[in-house]
């Protein structure tokens, strides 16, 4: 696993959910319009 350092304001943990032909991660409504970065921390379960 690689190590990355990211400066930010807040961290949440969640699970990626299937939607249509892709996937999404839910974040708080207050984050609307903010820039975010998603880091995968485990291999997907197939």
Number of strands: 2
**Global outline:** flat
Strand-pairing-aware structural class: mainly beta
Content of β-strand: 5-15%
Strand line-up across the major sheet: 1-2
Mean pLDDT: 92
Radius of gyration: 12 Å
Number of helices: 0
**Which percent range fits the helix content?**
under 10%
Oligomer: single chain
Q: Tell me the major beta sheet.
A: 2 strands, antiparallel
Number of domains: 1
Name the helix and strand elements from N-terminus to C-terminus, one letter apiece. Answer: EE
Instruction: List unreliable stretches of 5+ residues.
Output: none
Give the CA-CA distance, first to last residue. 19 Å
Protein name: DUF2080 family transposase-associated protein
Polypeptide structure, described:
This protein is an all-beta fold. The protein has one domain (1-40). 0% of the residues lie in helices and 13% in strands. The chain has no helices and 2 strands. Strands 1-2 form a two-stranded antiparallel ribbon. Strand 1 and strand 2 form a beta hairpin. It is flat. The two termini are 19 Å apart.
Write the layout of secondary structure elements.
Layout (H helix, E strand, L loop, with lengths): L16 E3 L2 E3 L22
Antiparallel strand pairs: 1-2
């Amino acid at each position: 696993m690689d190590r990355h350092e990211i400066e930010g304001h807040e961290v949440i943990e969640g699970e990626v959910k299937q939607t249509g032909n892709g996937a999404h991660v839910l974040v708080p409504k207050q984050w609307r319009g903010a820039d975010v970065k998603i880091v995968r921390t485990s291999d997907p379960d197939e």
